[in-house]
Amino acid sequence: GFYANLLLTQTPEHILTQTNNKTEILCELKKEHTGVYWYRWSQERQHFEFLVFSNTLGKATYGTNVSQDKFRVHEQRSHSSYSLHISQLHPSDNGTYYCSVSQSSQLLLGSGTWLIVADALPLPPKTTQTPLPKKPVPWITKSRAASRKAPCSPLVWIPLAAGVLLLLLGLVPTAHRLHRLRRRLWLRIHGQ
Questions:
Q1: pTM of the model
Q2: What are the boundaries of each domain within the chain?
Q3: Which Pfam families does this chain map to (predicted)?
Q4: Which of 12, 45, 16, 15 is nearest to 120 (CA)?
């Protein structure tokens, strides 16, 4: 079975990026292992796909129909961390990526990285520029600003990323309808 565990630390939790960009997911390991597996869960296809296994000697074994040019595993700091590099990103790469190690006949999974690839990232809404306050805002304390943790918790990011994903998925049928309509008009004009 699959078990989430404390032996793996996977970062970041979310990646939102554009088509043709590249990205990297890091997996840090706290115990002896024979190598790292990488999987992708596709919500759209309801499919858990094996991407690549990289052993401690740096030899990679790829899954069926997985491009070696697209996915590369880099090992760092004497087998204690591995990073999955994904290049030429496309919306078909959307999904949750998991690093994994085999431990006493169980597959231990990392926490997962949710990757969203969009043709264009949404622009922030245009607002009139307001002058910045001279005094610091009370809730941004020095200790909080100095903390290495990201200021946004998953409670903020997950609904935000889900909203962006729903927005993007909502655009797909509209784009498809427009494409069919344009094609029909083109055929009507050029077909006569």
A1: 0.61
A2: 4-118, 158-191
A3: V-set
A4: 16
Query: What's the token pair of residue 151?
Result: 């200021």
Tell me, what amino acid is at 6? L
Q: What is Dmax (Cα atoms) for the chain?
A: 72
Residue type for position 45: R
Taking residue 21's Cβ as centre, other Cβ atoms within 10 Å add up to 13
For residue range 66-118, list pLDDT tens digits in order: 999 999 999 887 768 999 999 999 999 999 999 999 887 888 889 999 999 99
Percent of the chain scoring above 90 in pLDDT = 40
- Please tell me the distance from the alpha carbon of residue 11 to that of residue 126, in angstroms, as a whole number: 32
As a whole number, the mean pLDDT across the chain is 79
Rg value, the chain, Cα: 21
**Contact indicator for 109, 2 with CB cutoff of 8 Å:** yes
Using 50, 70 and 90 to split pLDDT, how confident is the model at 129? Answer: low
How many angstroms separate the CA atoms of 108 and 128, rounded?
49
* Encoded amino acid at 58, one letter: G
**Tokens standing for 182?**
């344009």
The four Cα atoms 52, 54, 58, 64 give a dihedral, to 10 degrees, of -30
